Amino acid sequence: MQSDNATPGSVRPGGRTARVREAVLQAAGDLLAERGFAHLDLTEVAARAEVGKTTAYRRWRNSTGLVADLLVDMAEQSLPHADTGSLLGDLTANARLVAKTLTDPRQGRLFQAVIAAATCDETAAAALRRFYDIRLTEWSPCIVAAIARGEIPAGTDARAVLTAVSAPLYYRLLASGDPIDDEAASTAAIAAAQAAAAGIFTKAAKTPTTHKDS
């Protein structure tokens, strides 16, 4: 049985509880995509999911608890990392996956809503960090394999490389409004791969050199 003090999303349910969770998260994602976090109401989510309001509040407590569990579910449902045999191939696959997610009519709006929530609510921010931690951990073996093949230097920071791939695409979503197309995805992957090969993301490269006056 789930403890009343458990963090939303920290316990994996089964049976009827799993079906309830699936219905509620689907409804929550739909409402987030339609209206944004500011208008996410747990009572309305429960009604749309055809779940008792008491059940919803007992399990998720509030809107931010619901967002936290939604992000856990999204991370679990996301595709595993690629294994194309080359760093550029793997990073291109990663970039295209991010681009596909951000340009999806539902998922793109959903991410915008969740990111907006994270700017003003620490629970949502912590959930968003957990989501990206899961995804970076999943894709980090691509960088480890590239090091083993000799494509990039030992000590390359896997998370820094992967962040360099997705960051330009999120910038387009949240700031510039430029197209998130295959060209943008390919360019992000190429830039990150070339920077990694040049040693930009090694731990030594991130250590500033200090010069003392003689």
How would you describe what is shown here?
The protein has 214 residues and is an all-alpha fold. 68% of the residues lie in helices and 0% in strands. The protein has nine helices and no strands. The longest helix is centred in the middle third of the chain and has 27 residues, at 122-148. The chain is elongated. The model is unreliable at 1-7 (pLDDT under 50).
Question: Gist?
Answer:
The protein is mainly alpha-helical and 214 residues long. Helices cover 68% and strands 0% of the residues.
Characteristic key phrases:
214 residues, elongated
How far from one another are the termini? Answer: 68 Å
Number of strands: 0
Assembly form of the protein? single chain
Q: H/E order of the elements?
A: HHHHHHHHH
Structural class: mainly alpha
Shape type:
elongated
Query: What is the overall number of helices?
Result: 9
Record the SSE blueprint.
Elements: H1 15-35, H2 42-49, H3 53-60, H4 63-77, H5 87-103, H6 105-118, H7 122-148, H8 158-176, H9 182-197
